[in-house]
């Protein structure tokens, strides 16, 4: 496990995210894919913990306007952007996952953490803090990057990247030589699954995207494509159906308390 920025305070992390002005986001097809995995939440109370500028909440509101949506975000700049994007469609709170606002126990039907765990100093403690807010029959939906999907090519690439700058594009986005985030962790699927188990969560469903990311990176860099080719989407579904999610870079899981 490789870490960067874990010595920063919450205030320092928030300030550095503010400097981005809410510009950090995923590919345009990512949020619809997450919403598809989450499923029907109409009439539910949903928390997006680490909601950024609110991109996923916008997608959920578009699909399920009767859902009661909440967002939690550490960066004031992102909070402002999320509120501007969503208006009265969501309740956006400015706080960190290490200092949650006062909320009733068993309040949410679904709690979402989308590409968040790798940006936390203490992901286990964050999950344990959020867990009491979930209804007994509720579920966590968590997405995270899986560095193991870049093996074996990431090993020689990490050695060459300090000398050959373009090689950094073939490392996981979380790697210290590539990340733009103030705090990041290079997790494997196995390491995140271990954290979920420690938090007393049982995985009930999982899927992956961006299978064989080191090959896909060539399309992004040299094919000038905004989104993955359709063949990759079919490959992702095929790999997910067989449970071989370790081959995918973006892992989606649904979890319930044990």
Helical fraction equals 25-40%
Which regions contain 5 or more consecutive residues with pLDDT less than 50? none
Helices, by number, come to: 9
* Sheet with most strands: strand arrangement: 4-3-2-5-6-9-8
CATH first level: which class?
Answer: Alpha Beta
The dominant shape is globular
Can you put this structure into words, describing what you see?
- With 258 residues, the protein is of the alpha/beta class.
- The chain has one domain (2-257): Vaccinia Virus protein VP39 (Rossmann fold, 3-Layer(aba) Sandwich).
- The chain is 34% helix and 24% strand.
- A 7-stranded mixed β-sheet has the order 4-3-2-5-6-9-8, with helices on both faces. The protein has a two-stranded antiparallel ribbon with strand order 1-7.
- Helix 2 (30-38) packs across helix 3.
- It starts with a strand and ends with a strand.
- The model has no long low-confidence stretch (mean pLDDT 92).
């Amino acid at each position: 496990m490789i870490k960067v920025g874990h010595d920063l305070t919450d205030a320092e992390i928030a300030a550095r995210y503010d400097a981005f002005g809410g510009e950090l986001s995923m590919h345009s097809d990512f949020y619809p894919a997450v919403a598809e995995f989450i499923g029907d939440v109409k009439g539910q109370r949903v928390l997006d913990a680490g909601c950024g500028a609110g991109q996923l909440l916008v997608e959920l509101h578009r699909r399920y306007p009767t859902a009661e949506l909440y967002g939690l975000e550490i960066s004031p700049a992102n909070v402002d952007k999320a509120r501007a994007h969503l208006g009265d469609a969501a309740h956006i709170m400015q706080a960190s996952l290490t200092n949650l606002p006062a909320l009733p126990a068993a309040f949410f039907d679904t709690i979402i953490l989308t590409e968040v765990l790798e940006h936390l100093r203490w992901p286990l403690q964050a999950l344990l803090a959020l867990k009491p807010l979930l209804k007994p029959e509720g579920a966590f939906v968590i997405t995270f990057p899986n560095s193991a999907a870049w093996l074996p090519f990431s090993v020689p690439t990490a050695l060459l990247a300090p000398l050959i700058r373009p090689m950094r594009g073939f490392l996981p986005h979380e790697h210290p030589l590539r990340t733009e985030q103030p705090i990041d962790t290079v997790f494997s699927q196995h390491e995140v699954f271990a954290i979920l188990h420690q938090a007393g969560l049982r995985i009930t469903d999982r899927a992956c995207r961006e299978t064989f990311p080191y090959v896909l990176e060539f399309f992004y860099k040299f094919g000038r494509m905004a989104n993955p080719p359709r063949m990759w989407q079919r490959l992702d579904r095929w790999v997910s159906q067989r449970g071989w999610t370790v081959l995918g870079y973006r892992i989606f899981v649904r979890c319930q308390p044990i």
